[in-house]
Amino acid sequence: FQKLSERGLLRPGFKALCVGAGSGHSVLALRENGLPDAIGIDRKSFAPLVRRGDIHRLPFAHDSFDFVFSASFDRALVPALLASEVERTLKTGGVAAMLVSPRRLNVGNAINPFYSLSPVVALFRNSDVVHVTQVGPPNAHDATVIVLRKLPFGSSKSLGLEQEYSWSKQNRSLVKLAEPLTMDHGNAIY
Question: Where do transmembrane segments lie in this chain (predicted)?
């Protein structure tokens, strides 16, 4: 979360949510980085950090959070529904950070059998990509963080005026920088 803070995407006092928070390590990290009201949601409660709830039907009002993080996006049963819920609960201009693993994306998951970020990004219909970065050891391609900013209602993308499964030129260039996500016997898999 430190790098997001350095980029001005995460600021002290933001209201933050961790989706699929498990035992609350990410919630605790956010609290230690100046977000004392950060809360997590998962199928099991780990009070006081994580509330019990369905990640596909978040128990929060529209526009509740400045920041939403998930390290469980690629394990969601219905990724499109999770993306929709993240955007619903995120305030306009708010930031979402999705940690995805190319290894998990390929394990029988309908999001993306080809290890690509493009289908993941396309699920966020009301957000633009602002940053993409690899995490883990260099060249390991263990995981990627996709950082998105929710667009104001009325933008061409939020009104559905862009072609289905397309996004802005900026999104394409950022995603292209992160591709390929993995290597198969020395050959890039796109």
Answer: none
